[in-house]
Amino acid sequence: MSLTTASRFARRELRGGLKGFRIFLACLALGVAAIAGVGSVRSAIQSGLEAQGSVLLGGDASVEFTYRFADPDERAYLESISTEISEITDFRSMVVRDPDGEAERALTQVKSVDAAYPLTGDVILEPSMPLADALAGTEKLPGAVMAPLLADRLGLSPGDSFRLGTQDFVLSAILINEPDGSASGFSLGPRTLVTTEALREASLLQPGTLFETEYRLLLPPGSDLDALENATEDAFPSSGLRWRDARNGAPGVAEFVDRLGAFLILVGLSGLAVGGIGVSAAVRAYLARKTSVIATLRTLGATRATIFQTYFLQIGALSILGIALGLVLGAMVPILFGPVISASLPVPAIFTIHPAPLAEAALYGLLTALVFTLWPLARTEEVRPAMLFRDALDGAKALPAWRYVIATLVLLALLVAVASFFSGSPFLTLWTAGGLIGALIVLVFAAIGIRWLAKRSGKSMRGRPAWRWALASIGGPRDAAAPVVLSLGLGLSVLAAVGQIDGNLRSAIDRDLPEVAPAYFFVDIQPDQMPQYTEMLENDPAVARIDTAPMLRGVLSEINGRPARDVAGDHWVVTGDRGLTYAAQPDENTRVVAGEWWDADHDGPPEVSFAIEEAEEMGLSLGDTLTVNILGRDITATITSFRDVDFSTAGMGFVMTLTPNALQGAPHTFISTVYAPQEDEARILRELATAFPNITAISVRDAIDRVSVLLEGIGAAVRWGAAATLLTGFLVLIGAAAAGEGARTYEAAVLKTLGASRSRILQSFALRSALLGAAAGFVALIAGILGSWAVMTFIMDSSFEVVWTSALGIVVGGVLATLIAGLIFAWRPLAARPAQVLRARE
Question: Which end of the chain has fewer CB atoms at under 10 Å, N or C?
Fold first, then answer.
């Protein structure tokens, strides 16, 4: 019965329109829209990847080998399950141009293809021509095509010649579109495309060199991909092959988009939390205005349950409206800006209405609305009918009944659980939730402290009326500090944390790494070249240090006889082929932290030394056995020691180091790092490349620049998300300022009656806003610095320094935001006539 009555009361209340709920709706809609928009873009990219999976992969399926081509049996099997097959190789090399006797070099990612390439999609060249004609070249030289960036860097135009290894090529055209380009993921150099046959004389595909071979397959219609994958792996269990199919044509891109999208949604949840504060404040202000209505209902016999249900239904209906507005905005904005977004993406995207991210955003919005409205709604039950005519909500107890406290905590836990499930990263979600809750607790205590301090400080401002009025208002019974400090403080905390993390990442890349990193990585050094290579560098006075090691790549397939992924999950060590080496004795840079190294003349079963940090993450112990597939051969070794490996120095670091007797007989090359001043880098590269045209040089500085560009894009996306959070906080400020307009009007009327001038009253309003903004900015800065320090220290395992330019901007931004919001609603109180205001108050 009470629910029916409450429904009727709620419908009648809603007839009054949305006055007082505009900020409520804006906060909820903006938070939901941010999450829905990010999710819609992520789903659009995922749909594009799924729809174009065959084109991105270059076929219906792909089988990949490391270091080698398929043997005759493997090739025959692949041909038997497919209708068409194409063989390609992929590796890094140096492009050399020597127009006037002065060689110019650049790193490139070479793809060599056969006549069947591409099986799917179209290669677009400039000038337009068939790929086969472009790669045929001239009578004297084989042809090649390359990416515009690489051609521009070397000053190459169609018709010019260049060299790969020991083979000269003629540039036939510029590569405008490579249909399967994103399947390879992140690369350090732009693409060059040649035929595999033309590389036979280039000395680049020798045994042991770092190259990968892929066999792209077109399958019969209706093929069972799962069955084919299992059958292929069962047919060649020790071959080291890796199967991919069109269901995941660009796994690196898909994983990156998924993780970045999940992180941005967590940033969006921060914005929704800020909006939740505005929602809570709007509900509290609305119920305060409904004191007389509640009093009348209680007088006429309405129960506490009826009153709670009345306003719960009313606020619920408005919440659904706000969520709906956010969903419409979040669904339509990506569609409207779809062409612009698609033009900036390296992969296809299908922009349409995607129900899944909209449902996820709606669930977030609903849970947030419940968490932040249940508390103020529940407090109405704690007010006695006799008090309802005397600012009941201001006189209610701070805490509602325990059942509402417990319900709020359960809803909060459910919100965190949902976010953990959808993000796919419970660890990061819990960190984010903990940071938000911690920031809110700090801000609540800060608001209480600011109010207490303002109340104590006001008495010492004799002779400074504007300051005294401002402090009295902040420390007054209406608690003006709380909504400002909470809303703006949380928004600025998120922005401060993002700014500090972004600044520290830039600092680590721009300042720290170049001081400790080598100038070059040299790979594919043949064993018989090592004596001459080492002698050249040791006799060069500019070279400060040389590190060398034998280099192989293998797939960690089993741990203690079980599939590696069943033991270690999706840890990066088991998700692809890994670099590994062998050594008779540890060098001076190796620090064994557990177990013992093998004897120098070890001739027993293979043993392995493993990186300690990765071992702990994977749950490995001394005595565990690892099976690594190298060149199609399974090698099982026992872990006898753990080493401390620091990958942050950009030097050589191997997760696995094996005994020499396990790997020494396998075809392999050497890898080397060279430390030298920047001014000598070009000369060293020129001399080594002339002496050893087959080796590949990877400039650490160039690699860092490419990573910096990638991080800049990520940072920009995160900053936009944080800006949306701050915008929500500003809307809450507007709402708080609008809600307090009546109190400021009365205050201005009293002050005018006592002889205060408009300018002095305006000065007090401005001072109050500036003080609250500075306090919110200062507290947010502390919370943001603590949060970013925790992220850099415990999640990114990096050093942390306060970026003071960003910190100053946060405090200044807080002052400006509250000042603008306060002044927007200061003019009507200043213009009001005291007599009318005081008469109406009576």
Answer: C
